[in-house]
C-alpha cells in the first residue's frame, strides 16, 4: 500500500526506498492461474496471474475486514476473500459483495494495486508513496534487453538487511579474499587503489591500477530501478564469449531479509550461445551458487549493528557513497525529516 504519511526516515531506510521500481520474485513463482503471497518493503502483497499470463499485484488485505486475500479463491480475473466472499478485481476494485449485493463497497477501488513489469524472468513492481502514486520512468538494464546477450537468473533469499546485500556488490575488493578460491577470481592483486567515476545514471567504483583481471569494477545504475553491473574475466574452460557479466538487484523484504537477483550474462550468439548455455548448466552454474553461498554466509554472520561499529578505509568509498545516496533518499521521502 502507498507509504504512510507517518513513515520515518529509519523505517524507509530499513525497508527500502519508495517512488521507484524493485524486483519482487522470479516470474516462475507465479504460474498462470495461480496466486502467491509475498512480502516486499515490509508489507504483505498478493501476486495474481490470470490464466492468460497477465500479472497483477495487490495489497494482501481485503477491504472488508482486512483478511488476507492470499487465503482466498482465484476466480480467473479476480480473487474472492475466503472470510466473507468479497471479490476484488486485479486493479483493486471491489467487483462483488455476495453477502449484500449492491452495497456501497461495490465498484470502489479499495485495494492498492501496484504497476508491474516482467523482465529477464523476474517481476518488478513500482512502490510509490501518497505523493507519487504514478510509476517512475523505468529504463531496464541493457544486458536483459539486448537480443545479443544471453542471461541466466539466480535468485536467493538472505537473512540480511537489503542495504548490506547492495553494499557487498559495491565492494569489489572482497572478491580477492572471500572468493579467492573461485574459478574466476583466483587471479589479481590483493592490494589496490580505487576511485569513484560519476556517470549520468550513477557511478563506477573501480580499481585505478588493475583492469580485466578480477572483480575490478562495479557500476551502480539508478534508472527507475537500482541495479549494479560488473564483468569478470572467464578462464578458457568456460568456452567462447569473452568476460561474463553480472546484473544484480536486491528486493527489500523487511528489516532483516532480502531477495537477491543475479543475472549472469555473456554477449554471445549462434553456436557460441549454445556452447555457453551448455557449459553453464553442466559445469559453471554450481560454481556460481558456491560463490553466492560464500556471500550469504558472510553477510548473515554480520552483527545487527555492523554498520555502526566500523572503521572504514579507502576501499570503502563506494559503500560510503551508496549509504549517503540511500540515506538522502529516505530523508527526502519522509515527512518527518
TrEMBL record:
InterPro entries from the UniProt entry: Cholesterol_7-desaturase, Rieske_2Fe-2S, Rieske_2Fe-2S_sf, VanA_C_cat
Keywords associated with the record: 2Fe-2S, Dioxygenase, Iron, Iron-sulfur, Metal-binding, Oxidoreductase
Domain Rieske: 21-125
Pfam families reported for this sequence: Rieske, VanA_C
PROSITE patterns given in the database record: RIESKE (PS51296)
Keyword hit for Transcription: no
Organism of this sequence: Streptomyces platensis
Protein's UniProt keywords contain Oxidoreductase: yes
Any one Gene Ontology molecular-function term assigned to this protein's record: 2 iron, 2 sulfur cluster binding
EC number, UniProt record: 1.14.12.22
Protein name: Aromatic ring-hydroxylating dioxygenase subunit alpha
Amino acid at each position: 500500500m502507498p507509504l504512510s504519511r507517518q513513515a520515518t526516515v529509519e523505517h524507509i531506510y530499513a525497508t527500502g526506498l519508495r517512488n521507484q521500481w524493485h524486483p519482487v520474485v522470479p516470474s516462475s513463482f507465479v504460474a498462470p492461474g495461480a496466486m502467491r503471497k509475498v512480502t516486499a518493503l515490509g508489507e504483505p502483497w498478493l501476486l495474481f496471474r490470470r490464466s492468460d499470463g497477465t500479472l497483477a499485484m495487490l495489497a494482501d488485505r481485503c477491504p472488508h475486514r482486512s483478511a488476507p486475500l492470499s487465503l482466498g479463491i482465484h476466480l480467473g480475473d479476480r480473487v474472492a476473500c475466503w472470510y466473507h466472499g468479497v471479490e476484488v478485481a486485479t486493479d483493486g476494485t471491489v467487483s462483488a459483495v455476495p453477502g449484500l449485493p449492491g452495497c456501497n463497497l461495490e465498484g470502489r477501488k479499495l485495494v492498492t494495486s501496484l504497476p508491474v513489469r516482467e523482465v529477464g524472468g523476474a517481476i518488478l513492481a513500482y512502490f510509490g508513496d501518497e505523493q507519487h502514486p504514478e510509476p517512475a520512468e523505468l529504463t531496464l538494464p541493457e544486458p536483459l534487453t539486448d537480443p545479443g546477450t544471453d542471461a541466466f537468473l539466480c535468485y536467493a533469499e538472505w537473512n540480511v538487511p537489503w542495504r548490506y546485500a547492495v553494499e557487498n556488490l559495491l565492494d569489489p575488493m572482497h572478491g580477492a579474499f572471500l572468493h579467492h578460491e573461485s574459478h574466476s577470481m583466483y587471479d589479481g592483486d590483493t592490494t589496490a587503489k580505487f576511485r569513484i567515476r560519476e556517470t549520468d545514471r550513477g557511478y563506477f567504483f573501480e580499481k585505478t591500477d588493475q583492469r580485466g583481471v578480477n572483480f575490478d569494477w562495479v557500476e551502480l545504475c539508478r534508472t527507475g530501478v537500482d541495479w549494479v553491473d560488473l564483468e569478470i574475466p572467464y578462464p578458457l574452460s568456460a568456452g567462447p564469449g569473452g568476460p561474463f557479466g553480472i546484473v544484480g538487484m536486491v528486493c527489500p523484504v523487511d528489516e532483516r531479509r532480502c531477495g537477491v537477483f543475479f543475472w549472469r550474462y555473456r554477449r554471445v550468439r549462434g553456436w557460441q550461445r549454445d556452447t555457453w548455455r551448455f557449459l553453464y548448466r553442466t559445469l559453471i552454474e554450481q560454481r556460481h551458487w558456491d560463490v553466492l553461498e560464500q556471500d550469504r554466509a558472510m553477510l548473515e554472520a554480520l552483527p545487527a549493528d555492523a554498520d555502526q561499529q566500523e572503521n572504514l578505509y579507502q576501499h570503502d568509498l563506494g559503500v560510503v557513497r551508496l549509504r549517503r545516496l540511500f540515506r538522502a533518499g529516505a530523508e527526502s521521502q519522509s515527512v518527518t525529516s
